[in-house]
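FORM 7B - TANDEM STRUCTURE REPORT

SECTION 1: FIRST PROTEIN
SEQUENCE AND TOKENS:
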Amino acid sequence: MSSPRLRVLPHLLLALFLTFAGTYQASAQDAQAVSKEGVTPGATDGAAPATGGGDAAAISAGDALFKGNCAQCHAVNDKVVGPALAGVEKRRPISWLIPWVKNSSKVVASGDAYAVKLFNEYQKQQMPSFALTDKEITSIFAYVKSAEGGTKQAETPGGVTTENSPKADEGGAAKYVDILLIVLVVVLIVLVVTLVIIGNLMRDVLRGRKDLNGRDVEVLEQRTDWSKIYRSPVLRGIVGTVFALVLLYEGVQQVMAVGLTQGYQPTQPIAFSHKLHAGEHQINCAYCHTSVYKSKSANIPSANICMNCHSQIKTESPEIKKIYRAIERKQPVQWVRIHNLPDLAYFNHSQHTQVGGLECQTCHGPIEKMDVVYQYSALTMGWCINCHRETPLNTKGNGYYDALVKLHDSKNAGAPFTVSSNGGTECSKCHY
């Protein structure tokens, strides 16, 4: 009568373990649904435009222009390199602001009292001239007006809006998953210890009984013979097979990884932090990599771009002094290249960023969170081809695609028109 009680202990432990594992998996999935790492194309499509009046299209256009041209030195509600722009149309009329944005030096040289005062107030730092149309400048100030007095938020270069707080991405359901995990682990340990104590007590009680039959005594006094298990040919065969498979798997992985540099993170000559510049200060990628939307390659920033800000900011920093020395010696900063495709493969940045509308994070990962940049994606041929097979093309309003889409739909009803549908997986697209 005792053996069934003793045999139930392993089943209880197994049930507890499965319950714990299932609960944790469900909680982890909930947390993952709330907070995801990285940015995917189109993740912010359909996001509501900023509130506060003005035409929604103009505000949206102004938002993009502000981030690409103004955000390096200005914020709407805070003073950065230049003054906060909130209420700027109350201080100066739009007829004054347009020529100021186009060529502030000309306005200062004209002797305008407000322009001269502003120029002197900010240590005579020259604001760059911008080749923008009147409509574009007006849309920028429409965006500024819509964002005045709003909740402080930081928008990363990938377009994901988050609270401007160092703890923003640590909140949500993730912290509750950690707490739940700790509680479940503690409860499981307590239950295991309790069951072990109960099992030992039951053995002590049963040993003192006189009515046990031979089977009960055998179960009660049984011990695990580990030497038999160790010498078992079945166990040795299983262990040997697993070991051989692990060695084979690792060998294949090492061979397949020849020539791959995913995770490559070299030390740069200057400790430049993308997390600080692109993340906290929200400097648009195109401000430094000026050719990313219009050239085959994303250029390495020149020292002059750094000096646009660092001629006034952190001038005594040892890292900034390295830029000064490079300029004095008339030598470029020797940045170490991280993303390097083989010469046999053709890749065009502008085709992907300007035409395809891809965000930088699609290939480079959460660049705005990296203190030291590393190669985030594999950048292999298979990785590129999978992207071409899965990424749909935006063909609306482009007559070039009309016949192709019609032909595609007639033979592939219901299937999306992807880059692959347009010949994006043909060898000659990248190798010629």
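SECTION 2: SECOND PROTEIN
SEQUENCE AND TOKENS:
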Amino acid sequence: MTSNPPNLRPDLAPQPRFDERPREGQPTLGMVSLGCPKALVDSERILTRLRAEGYAISPDYKGADAVIVNTCGFLDSAKAESLEAIGEALAENGKVIVTGCLGAEPEFITGVHPKVLAVTGPQQYEQVLDAVHGAVPPAPDPFVDLLPATGVKLTPRHYSYLKISEGCNHACKFCIIPDMRGKLVSRPAHAVLREAEKLLDAGVRELLVISQDTSAYGLDRKYDLNPWKGGEVRSHITDLAREMGKLAQGTGAWVRLHYVYPYPHVRDLVPLMAEGLILPYLDIPFQHAHPDVLKRMARPAASAKTLDEIAAWRAACPDIVLRSTFIVGYPGETEEEFQYLLDWMDEAQLDRVGCFQYENVAGARSNALPDQVPEEVKQDRWDRFMEKAQQISAAKLEARVGTREQVLVDSVDDEGATCRTRADAPEIDGNLFIDEGFEDLKPGDMLSVEIEEASEYDLWGRPVAD
């Protein structure tokens, strides 16, 4: 079993899982997938295409004829991690193809690692395939190389990320993601729902809906109508969530929304949560609370109105769980502005919180802002912020002791079962542990538990009859 605190960084996806064995003589590729869940979905798409062409996937460098490294460029520390992973793949294997967000800066990569075979940017699936074909020619056997209807998945079989759009229309000064991934491009609603249906039919118990800006889904398509099951469905997040919830209801699966900006129409999602169609969980990147800091970030400066929205969401759905991320030490942040954020946290009482110390990122407009905050001040503010968040989390979890909740089993070992409640997304939130009566449980099981104990981040419970 594992215990928290978790990494608390929402830009990191779960570790990819590779569990297939190649047939004799089958060309085999390795995959290193770095960065966020959106990048993990890109890796799944690449491997699905390659798997359909007869390639096998290797869990290690030595068993691979070549290695694909899907990079992250979110922060300078993430870029350094990507360069390190490329170097390791070159040292261990020798044949390396680079893709992903950092691939938008090919000279940056080849300047450090000139021996890589090819560099492609994010979502450039065809170019990745071309590079693979050049390094390791395909050798398909259509009678043996069967592809699952859901494609290749790098997450455990009982949950799956479902990406509904690419890109972002925001111009936050600290972020270069729109420069790398472009403007918002939403998938047609019927295509998203068809993928959701396939995943649910394959036994997935939780759909994690992701994008760069989930609330904006369909804006670029002018919320067009799409054919679906004899009728039509609008490309709008409310309609999409409702239809996805209806599909999930038939299997008892969960639908969880991530990266939801607090636009006014988000209030239309909350009744769907109260009805039980989607999980009562909102992952909203507030980033800060002080209006002046938000203005310097080029984000909507409406923290007071945000508190009103939070109160309205909780009134409409008392069980709603709110998760968010924040940045401390942003250029120009004063002690008074930081204290304002701490006071806002006391009022908002968010359930799940992650926090970044601000980093300058090459190409970000915030680099040029005056009054950069010293590193030791950033660390001090991060420590104080996380202490506040931990206090709030501990009190909220303690209040759940004695209640009964439905949980989803993620893993089972000799010590017990590691589960999640509806309030917990994989990897970034807490866990619920069962250390008695777990012997017959397996990943993907759903069951009721009575919560018996709580810590700052995690819960412990025992199975009970429904």
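SECTION 3: OBSERVATIONS ON SECOND PROTEIN
The CA atoms of residues 342 and 388 lie 7 Å apart.
The longest helix spans residues 375-398.

SECTION 4: SIGNATURE
Preparer initials: ____
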